[in-house]
Amino acid sequence: MASRYDCTDPDGLLTGMRLARAALGRGELVVVPTDTVYGVAADAFSASAVQRLLDAKGRTRQSPPPVLIPGPPTLEALATDIPQQVRDLVDEFWPGGLTVILRAQPSLDWDLGETRGTVALRMPDSRIALELLQEVGPLAVSSANSTGDPAAMDVDQAESMLGDSVSVYLDGGPLAQHDGFAASTGSTIVDATGLSTGGKLTIVRHGVIADEDVVRVVGADLVT
């Protein structure tokens, strides 16, 4: 039976975070608010937990989840061949709605699915998510919805789609709509793997960070 905690209340936040940490440590799933949408989270270093996340969403291993991290130092630990343009993007937009695909450190002992040696990383601008990340480390996180349905913008929507596949729901209240975007818009995703081989950065999903802002930081000649 899933448990739900009102994280706008100090006591609910304290209890919810404690039980969320315990659930993640057991390889179970937790729903957490981010700055873009509600996300369903699993221990990034537990292959069985990541598979549980994919199963809950109705996804295959061909759709590996991104990884949320507590800050730029973790970027260095999880990724390799980080070009200066990515560091500039991180300085500009983290914490925030930008996910960066990079080459993963080859020594990492994890299995996120068919990543082809890459990892998608983001530092969210969310007090609850960052507190959890600082306590438990990197989390595989995907939008808290069934595949094909709109991303959840409040915990009710998340629970209606994911039900008891999730152990703990952290309720941070309804998320605000980003100006100029649909309510279910997630992070902007860029693939920076080409930059390290003399190629370009590719915007693979248009999200809450506008394309023109990415181009402004990286340079028009290096973005496709």
TrEMBL record:
Major enzyme class: transferase
Compartments, record wording: Cytoplasm
Top-rank taxon, per record: Bacteria
Annotated keywords: ATP-binding, Cytoplasm, Nucleotide-binding, Nucleotidyltransferase, Transferase, tRNA processing
The keyword Cytoplasm is annotated on this UniProt entry: yes
Family of the protein in this entry: Belongs to the SUA5 family.
Protein name: L-threonylcarbamoyladenylate synthase
Lineage: Bacteria, Bacillati, Actinomycetota, Actinomycetes, Micrococcales
